[in-house]
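tmp note - Threonine synthase
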Amino acid sequence: MDYISTRGSAPALDFEGATLAGLASDGGLYVPREWPRFSADEIAAMAGLPYAELAAKIMFPFVEGSLTYDRLLELTRQAYGRFAHKAVTPLKQLDEQQWVLELFHGPTLAFKDVALQLLGLLFEEFLGRSERNLTIVGATSGDTGSAAIDAVAGRAKVDIFMLHPKGRVSDVQRRQMTTVLAPNVHNIAIDGSFDDAQATVKRMFNDHAMTDRFAIGAVNSINWARLMAQVVYYFAAGLQLGAPHRKVAFSVPTGNFGDVFAGYVAAQMGLPVEKLIVATNVNDILHRALAEGDYSQGTVTPTAAPSMDIQVSSNFERLLFDLGGRDGKALAEQMAGFEATKAMQLTNAQREGAAALFSSARTDADEMAQAIRWAWENCGELIDPHTACGLFAARTAGIDASIPVVTLATAHPAKFPDAVERATGQRSGLPARVGDLFEREEKCVELTGDYESIADFVAQHASPKI
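out:
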């Protein structure tokens, strides 16, 4: 399998190369040249496999040529051995139709762990084959940062610089990043929004003064390897609910479109997906794009679901590329227009292709609280605000009653205790494994949001590529 850029002009890379590169040199995102596909019989044969074995089977077509199947299986067993639940991503029933897929049993209590525990091992594997040092530069709206830091803290040949918007992540989210004191970890709080941080990261990938000196890598979902790992839990849930003989719908709280794009990949690989419901909060660029074809950047509004407070959804480009006939030149022109004007209309082909599999819903603060309250009062389940956006969308999507609807529970409720308590009167405690979080020492640098100050800081503290 090799990987091509959504913008058409960067050289194709193998899996190892795409993993270490992150963003393509032409500013695009790497995608597999073609989607591998499993037959119904092959999917049926995966039922009942332990999660690590299922992960190796699903991901092997993407990594072949860079990893053997046996080595991949060793890595998945190592990655998922750290999870607090033996099922890794357990599925829980709420009522006759609604289910939640708990993705928060990893070390930092968020779905990002499912991918980033593996990605950290992949970095270590591939860097061990060369003399290269890797400088990871990432932006986080809350959960990516802590999961990425946990995955690479203390690892050889890797420095990580994680940008987060100052004051716009929860206390738990911040502390999960800033209390990791490993010498290769650098937390940076910037004045501005997640979109500002993400724009800085993308600019650094295209800054030759930086890339000539440092091997800049990505842990955000612009990195294909991260999305690849997220495909697995769609298969895990689908198999438990009757796939390949029964369709399943998924409701996905999302801001950057990575988690729900993994569901799209699962569908391309043969999983029978009835619908992918894109659940946004009031920062609703994805809802507007899917409902009206209007992909226009607005102003970020802070909410109780900060990981979704995003107005530029990087991974949406991958979907537009696939639905637009994989025409890299045309997409490069379309994205250049968006980057210049902050507005873009989807083409007819993109709108029609999306409508076949996707729907969307926008959740405001009252609806978010209502969903948290419903889950507690009717099911005895505490859910976090992001999951609540997904559950609200799931319950209002109008999916046929014979089809199960799975909401992706993306974070542990204890990461957002104030919002949960306001809605239910219940305060979720941190699991014992992170119970001392508020007693740990913090370390963080505060910088303005301008590119030069951030690039200077990275240059002063990173190890050159060789």
